Amino acid sequence: MHELSIANSLVEIASEHARANGGQRILAITVRVGPLSCVHKSALEFSFDLLKQGTMLEGAQLKWLDVPVTVFCPTCEREVELPGIQRFRCPECDTPSGDIRSGRELDLETIEICQQATADA
Questions:
Q1: 81 is in which domain, residue-wise?
Q2: How many distinct structural domains can be found in the chain?
Q3: pLDDT tens string 36-76
């Protein structure tokens, strides 16, 4: 389950970034993920929820930006979005294409940092 090591990296990177910028805690992180990244979202969410406990990410939300799979179609001479990952053929002209332009992403996109600790009433 490589999602555990990915979640660990997300927690470490976000924590380091927040500390370097004077953050007290992290409210949310956003991850860009494509279907070809081989990441199971539910496993990553479980791992993230486990690893954030006792860190400045405790209570933080894991948000997703889904990246579609796109390929370059040599016949149409443009990038096209595939309806799924079962067929790497242009949905317009049915030409096969292995020229993948997006869909492999796994990027930490944003970190929402709280600069000041909230006062307890």
A1: 3-114
A2: 1
A3: 999 999 999 999 999 999 999 999 999 999 999 999 999 99
